[in-house]
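Good morning,

Both structures are done.
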Amino acid sequence: MGILRTFALGGIHPVENKLSANAPIETVPVPKQAIVPLGQNLGAPSKPIVAKGDMVKVGQLLAEAGGFISANIHSPVSGKVLKIDNAIDGTGYKRPAIFINVEGDEWDESIDTSADIVSEITLSSKEIIDKIKDAGIVGMGGATFPTHVKLMPPPGKTAEYLIINGVECEPYLTADHRLMLEKGQEIIIGTKLMMKALNVKKAFIGIENNKPDAINHIRELVKAHDDIEVQVLKVQYPQGGEKQLIKASVNREVPSGKLPIEVGCVVQNVGTAFAVYEAVQKNKPLIERVVTVTGKAVKRPSNLLARIGTPIAALIEMAEGLPENTGKIIGGGPMMGKAIISLEVTVVKGSSGILMMKKEESSRIVEGSCIRCSKCTYVCPMGLEPHLLSKAAKLGNYEMAEDEAIMDCMECGSCHYACPASIPLLDYLRLGKLKVGQIIRNRNNK
């Protein structure tokens, strides 16, 4: 496979536990009721344009983007709008959502539901971006940043490279892996579409070397495209972070507090590339996604294609149920994911995985005292001092936290993983980022 590329600073090697890597994508039955949250993207929540009693079809617009950094939401099912009310989200808070009672499965006539692959690209750059915006596409790797915004660099900035993230470095998760194996051709077309939207001449698809089948498959597909190159990356968490992937792919470093476009790069997930293909070539909005359902005690680890708004209980049932010794359910992977408090939580655009951890795995170890070993600093891929930042956050010294660049923290959890004293560094860092972020916004609004 030649030279294995990686980032230079920090990183760890947790056990991969890719238990569902060989599980083909299966489709989850349409739920009897879909609960579609209005806040499914980074930025402003969407604003509903339907009301109680309205009949909707699959793919019909339910809510419009609530600002520049926001995204449209479409109906994942057909039926009657029961109500617009609060529902529990993945963080445990009650937030506005649209409740739809399902009646049949009638799709909007404009959507191409055939299995035919449409490879010819006929639209202009602006038309591609407009279709992506209309379809409500967001970053499918979990960040959920509106895709159309990423494809419109600010004045004075120019994209030179498009980097497609097929790393999936988070332990347990395999949704992107399976998508590359089963929808590789569509991902390549989605990549070409975004290249045209950005007017870039070169794209890289980064895949870690623990996925040799995906590497070989995508390499075979890009033989016909001189402007797309597969880069084999060394297994090293968090290789899938934007800044780490840029360093590994094109050896450029994004400055502190800046975005990838600062060094001429735009990064998109393979799931996003597939969604872009469906939006532009098939006129299909983002109404479903692949979710990994897994865990060491799970009887049938799976990769499931589920409609947005489907209760996660339905996905767990398809994986043959909740294991008796489950101590915690994580939305996402074990490093960056967050605990889910209810099985009523539904699939959203950013749902990458459902991880059921055994009680003995999920129990917190008693926090010890910092022994100044500096392991957290050594593994930090952003070059921060997590022990110092966590202490500042714990003591409420947010001025110090800001001065020490806490907003550069990518919340990867490497420091937490490496700490021999089991100090919940990531918890303190997230708290500190939340508070410092509020301070910065208030300062900028004055």
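Second structure follows.
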Amino acid sequence: MVAAVLSDGGWGTALALTLLGNGHRVTLWGPFADNIAAMRQARENARFLPGVALPASLALSGDLAEAVAGADLLVLAAPAQYARSLLERLRDLPLASQPLLVNVAKGIEVGSLLRMSELARAVLGPLRYAVLSGPSHAEEVARGIPTAVVAASAEAAVSQAVQAAFMSDVFRVYTSDDVVGVELGGALKNVLALAAGVCDGMGFGDNTKAALMTRGIVEMARLGAAFGGRPETFSGLSGMGDLIVTCTSRHSRNRHVGEELGRGARLEEITRAMGGKVAEGVATADSAYGLARRAGVETPIIDQVHAGLYEGRDPRTAVRELMTRDAKPERL
């Protein structure tokens, strides 16, 4: 296929290399002219994925029209809160007939509370859409470390096309028709990873994180089901799988932000020190809170993360409130 990967972040770069390794013709587009120039010169994305060589066969472009010209596979890899502006730019460009749009961003748009499939259709109209999600840090995928993800689409032929395009002997792709569940699993786990990081920063142990993750997956499934997702999807790669890796890995930006918050750092200081890298869970916490209120779904952990980020609640107060909630039976 002719593929355009839209965003030169770490994940976009890793997926561009995956597609390139599978024999596709790939252009990696980025919005930062200085970073594209540096990548061309060094054949490395030192800003977002240092230490990984970029083959000469990987085309690099800062011109969006040039990048998407003739592409029958478009990989939307920009962070969720930048997706609308990118989609609006795509809408005004001549695209290949019925290109396959694969979203890999894990978030929910603030304000509109739209999932990425809803946003893409609102801007572009009917399209061949799939979401690719699962436990997949860019730092490992780019180095060929065995990884498994899931491609979800309402059309079986679309999810199978994505599976065929991306799958290799180190990157296994499953298919699903539960777009809602896969999208919400990928988005909501970032909010819970912030909470897991806070626990690490406060010096809590394995018991705390295990409880957080277990009750967190219940919240994810409960909220997902309210919007049409299947509860069992949240036990799969885009739910429990991604939750495990994001809550425990040293690569996790969301866990890192939470850890720094748990140590007493201010959010503005943390994000500034990340040098342009985005922790999707910060914005998604606001969207997830809004979705839960809209659906009337109980989400105590998500609520406390929201309160910590947007209402200034002290982490110790949040923990105390979670631990002293009314006694009740365990419900999954």
